[in-house]
Amino acid sequence: MPDRADTASNVTEYSVAELSFSLKRTLEDTYEHVRVRGEVSGFRGPHASGHCYFTLKDESASLDVVIWKSTFKRLKFKPEEGLEMVATGKITTYPRRSNYQLVVESLEPAGAGALMALLEERRKALQAEGLFAEARKRPLPYLPEVIGVVTSPTGAVIRDILHRLRERFPRHVLLWPVRVQGEGAAEEVAAAVRGFNALDPGGPVKRPDLLIVARGGGSIEDLWAFNEEVAVRAVAESAIPVISAVGHETDWTLIDLAADLRAPTPTGAAERAVPVRAELVAAVADFAARQSGAWTRLVGALGRELAGAARAMPSLNELLALPRHRLDEAGGRLLRALSQHRRFKAEAYLRLAGRLTGDSLKADHRRRRERLGELSARLAHAASAAPIRARRDLERSARLRPETLTRMLRIERERLAAGARHGEVFARRMRERSERLGHAGRLLETLSYKAVLSRGYAVVHDAAGTAVTSAAAVKADAGYEVEFADGRVPVVAASGAGSRMGGTAAPAKEPAAKPKPKRSAGGESRPKPSGGGQGSLF
Fold first, then answer.
1. Measured between alpha carbons, how far is 438 from 368 in angstroms, rounded to an integer?
2. Which neighbouring-strand residues pair with 488?
3. Is the dihedral of CA 90, 96, 99, 104 positive or negative?
4. Residue burial 186-220, b: 16+ Cβ < 10 Å; e: rest
5. How far apart are CA 60 and CA 38, in angstroms?
């Protein structure tokens, strides 16, 4: 029988690293591309590095999964806790811990049922926030001047919308091109809606009055970008009314619930956006005809009423007969009044002319000359009295002579000097009181216990901060503070301290026999140094 040691020596010997990396290459070559179905467990979102780590499990086993940061950004469907998904990737190992894991390249829900469950769960969560409430929805403008369209620039959707707008009512259309399917489509739709809302109404590019978010039909996976939360929130937050036209009439997405109006198709969205121009022209023509007919009927009715009123009124001669008679009577009275007035004025003139004789004019001249003489006498008297009043005013002002001003200035200087003396007295009293205060402060410092501490003494305080004045008040194993001149030090009373501070003395033990001191070479004994350490403070 061969020796086991010889047999073992023929087996290839590996280092731990060689074996680990050999297993890694074997697994990666054998399971380079696999699809694994299982339930997501332990997912808490991307790691700080951007990578994702979680577990796929079923009822019998579990598999560690890693999604690198660059792959996670490209995923159309993100992993969610408890969701059953199908992961595609390769099996590899992590040599440091000797375990294997699946490196994911793509991830998708396990069937349409899982997508519908995820969609229903997301719908309930957003509905609970009130994003789908009817109170948030706004009425559409009747005839928008500018319409913004968010869709793919190359598909048939934009052509259908433009064709239907030209047929119904041509309007100015702004297209924001986006991807409507695949990775990043939801973010582009959200950015387009927010971009239209950010336009300045008075800027070079006019802000739309209405938005249409449109896409053609497709499977639930194709329409999934319009179920993403970022796109739904952008539509719900839009200040511009939004029409959702995603898919066919039987398709529905979360954007349909958040929009102000859902159209069954993109063509239907264009029909809802504007009215039919021909119908408006016909309606306007009908209104114009009805208005013209109404005016004709109104004018005819007013003409008939005027003719009836004219027949009931009297003729012009009958209306003017009485005013003409009054005018004739007034003309006759006016001629008689003018003749009488002229005669009255002639008589008054004759009376005045009889009173204006030469004697009367002389008498009036004499009265006026006497009045002028009286006024001249009064003026002369006033002229002679003015110098007298001026002299009295001058004598009154002579009282303010230089001698008087000098005396007043001397009195004010004496008052100022007295005030200065009072200031010196006040300053001297302040110095005296300051010296007394300094002396009292020095005396207080001398009598303070702090000065005693600076000479090497200390004060013991208990836990309440009260000074301990006797050894009997010290309790064993209690905490205290010893205050020195430069601060306090916490201490603990040693056990048995009470027996050394006035308590009952414990019986003393007989001292052990001291060893004889060793003698030195010279015959002298040397004392043994005492042990180190500090004894109890008390």
1. 100
2. 483
3. negative
4. bbbbbbbbeebbebeeeeeeebbbbbbbbbbeeeb
5. 11
Q: How is residue 531 written in tokens? A: 């042990």
Is pLDDT at 261 greater than 60 in this prediction? yes
Q: Which of 416, 151, 407, 99 is nearest to 270 (CA)?
A: 151
> For the chain, how long is the longest CA-to-CA vector?
194
Q: What is the pLDDT of residues 131-147, one digit of tens each?
A: 899 888 999 998 999 99
CATH of domain 134-275: 3.40.50.261
Number of residues assigned to the chain: 538
Could you tell me if 124 and 148 are in contact, meaning their C-beta atoms sit under 8 angstroms apart?
Answer: no
Q: What are phi and psi of 37, to 5 degrees?
A: -110, 130
pTM for the whole structure: 0.43
CA distances to 179, 407, 408, 418 from 413, in Å = 100, 10, 9, 9
386, two tokens: 């003015």
Confidence of residue 511 (pLDDT cuts 50, 70, 90): very low
CB 468 within 8 A of CB 460: yes
**Tokens found for residue 368:** 């006026």
Dihedral of the alpha carbons of 410, 416, 418, 424, in degrees to the nearest 10: -150
What are 321's two structure tokens? Answer: 């007969």
All structural domains of the chain with their residue ranges: 16-110, 134-275
The span from the CA of 79 to the CA of 43, in Å, is 7
Q: If pLDDT is split at 50, 70 and 90, which confidence band does 20 have?
A: confident
The CATH number for 16-110, chosen from 2.60.120.10, 2.40.50.140, 1.10.357.20, 3.40.50.10680, is: 2.40.50.140
H/E stretch holding 106 reads: strand 99-109
Tokens of 214: 């449109």
Tokens describing residue 528: 């043994």
The answer to whether the 16-110 and 134-275 domains have the same CATH topology is no
- Give the CA distances from residue 389 to residues 382, 386, 398, in Å, rounded to whole numbers and listed in that order: 11, 5, 14
The Cβ of residue 462 has, within 10 Å, a number of other Cβ atoms equal to 15
